[in-house]
Design brief:
This protein is of the alpha+beta class. It is 33% helix and 28% strand. A hairpin with a 2-residue loop joins β3 (61-66) and β4 (69-74).
């Protein structure tokens, strides 16, 4: 519905999402904040990387886009029993 409104009316839609997969799947432009400041902004397919997750959230993960939808797979560090 929001995509239709955006397309038909030419309106900019601003959303606050905490689910990175949804944000990256549905947004044309994403802004990530860290400690209340813009840490990175741009096309979700370019900024949503393993380095991004490590720098912003301190988590290790693999990210792949399948049919335009991002799949974030957290990885466990070796010292905690990960692969």
């Amino acid at each position: 519905m929001l995509r239709r409104i955006n397309h038909e009316s030419g309106l900019t839609i601003v959303m606050v999402l905490h689910d990175l997969q949804q944000a990256a799947a549905y947004c044309h432009h994403m802004i990530a904040l860290k400690r209340g400041r813009i840490a990175v902004a741009g096309d979700p397919r370019h900024i949503l990387t393993s380095d991004f997750l490590r720098d912003i959230y301190g988590m290790n993960a693999t990210i792949k886009f399948e049919d335009g939808y991002p799949v974030i797979i957290p990885t466990i560090p070796h010292h905690l029993g990960g692969i």
